[in-house]
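User: Run a structure prediction on this.
Assistant: Running it now.
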Amino acid sequence: MPELTYQRILLKISGEALAGDRPFGISTDVVRFIAEEVQAVRALGVQVGMVVGGGNIFRGMEASARGMDRTSADYMGMLATVMNGLALQDALEKIGVDTRVQTAIQMQQVAEPFIRRRALRHLEKGRVVIFVGGTGNPYFTTDTTAALRAMEISAQVVCKATKVDGVYSADPMQDPAATKFAELTYLEVLSRRLRVMDSTAISLCMDNRVPIVVFNLHEHGRLRQLVFGERVGTLVRGG
């Protein structure tokens, strides 16, 4: 078996991905598929931290644009990520993967509080750790949460799971002439305003030299290929 390129990863999953083909809600089929993909890399000895969004249930920025107070809307979005995290934990544990949910918002009956040293201990013991509740602060996206948690747990890569197989010059669903980038620098992503992650998350990864791989998690085996260093999706680094 080839040697692992990444022994500890941070997997970022959007809330929309959990909805599957539906406009909102949680697809049990999608959640089960994601759990099986994570189980496959966990069986290789990869330590996995996860950050999940909440857009399949509630999007704070959209509610704010419609007149809701931004802070209240963002807190509601954070609560949505907790629901998604619990769904992922349930799916993972049903297939034998020990999992802990850690939240940035205190809710002792539901999940552990986020404590960095405890999270590291869980990872070292082979448990998957799902980070929910965002950063615990409004005005920060779950992309930024993913970058932040990646730094805190010393992840070697941020794996940004999307519905397409990388970063394109335009939306490939709408523009058939869109071209895929095999590799980009952080500065190229920022200057071209490419929709990889928000600028705060990109800057945080750039400052700490943590690469980002944007890939399609819905394609079986892609995460496994990624941890072995195979060219999957789009790699963002350097610059």
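The chain has a mean pLDDT of 93.
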